[in-house]
Specification:
Bound molecules: magnesium ion
Shape: globular
Number of domains: 1
CATH superfamily: Phosphatidylinositol (PI) phosphodiesterase
Number of strands: 11
CATH architecture: Alpha-Beta Barrel
Number of helices: 10
Structural class: alpha/beta
Length: 262
């Protein structure tokens, strides 16, 4: 009985520590899902499915809000020439992506994430910095994450500093990473933001920001790193996450480095 209780305690400790810590070592985030393969397309449900099936650490996706408050997954502010934030969902809902799927809603996307419990959501809110837009979008998206139990699996990212600050204020425990590339980690930390997600050229310009971020307990994500040379460069700098259109290549390079360091 005692042995059984000890085993149960050990399993509980292992589970708790797995829940509370970020994974060790650099991790791969599929940029807009895994789309560079047959039958997939950027920000499609299939791209998310492929990221999940390939067991990548995370899948990045972009979210826009329609004029009638429907959150949709799409990179650009426009879809088939229609400005998303100025039009109702009905104006875009039947238009298709490159793989024939219709534009996914955030609800559909999050429901699919539930089928891949190991997969981290790297959630980018697209915003022009409009206060009304962000005031409508942010509470809605946070509620959708919360009601599905996805908050702790989400890294929120945005080029909008005000959106990052608002999410960090509302959900201090959420990983929030600013995308802009021009602000030092210490300055972001003072705003309550706990990560940088910068284009690799920003990190080339300020390589010291990786260590600065780490010393402040912040994470460092690098985008969009697609070549062997640049992926290795970002790994060498110590980036925690590699956001890439070539996730299989990034995994191979990370594995090769781990093998070399044995
Ligand atoms: Mg994005």
């Amino acid at each position: 009985m005692k042995k059984y209780l000890v085993s149960v305690a050990l399993v509980a400790v292992a589970l708790l520590s797995a829940m509370c810590t970020k994974p060790v070592g650099p991790q791969v985030v599929a940029h807009r899902g895994y789309w560079d393969i047959e039958g997939s397309a950027q920000n499609s449900l299939e791209a998310l499915r492929q990221a999940g099936e390939h067991n990548f650490y995370g899948s990045e996706f972009d979210v826009n809000l329609t004029a009638d408050d429907v959150l949709v997954v799409n990179h650009d502010f426009t879809f088939h020439g229609i400005m998303i934030d100025e039009n109702p969902y009905s104006a875009i809902k039947d238009s298709t992506l490159a793989n024939g799927e219709v534009i996914p809603t955030l609800d559909q996307y999050l429901d699919l994430f539930l089928q891949y419990p190991q997969l981290q959501l790297v959630f980018e809110l697209k915003s022009k910095g409009d206060a009304d837009y962000e005031a409508r979008a942010i509470p809605m998206l946070l509620e959708k994450l919360e009601e599905r139990g996805l908050t702790s699996r989400t890294d929120f990212i945005s080029f909008s500093l005000t959106a990052c600050q608002e999410v960090a204020k509302r959900v201090p425990e959420m990983m929030v990473e600013y995308l802009g590339g021009e602000i030092a980690p210490a300055e972001l930390k003072a705003m309550g933001i706990n990560g940088i997600d910068y284009h690799y050229s920003a990190l080339e310009k300020h390589p010291e920001w990786v260590e600065e971020a780490h010393s402040l307990g912040m994470v460092c994500n690098a985008w969009t790193v697609n070549t062997e040379e640049k992926i290795n460069e970002m790994l060498e700098l110590g980036a925690d996450f590699i956001t890439t259109n070539a996730p299989e290549l990034a995994e191979q390079l990370i594995a090769a480095r781990a093998e070399e360091s044995k």
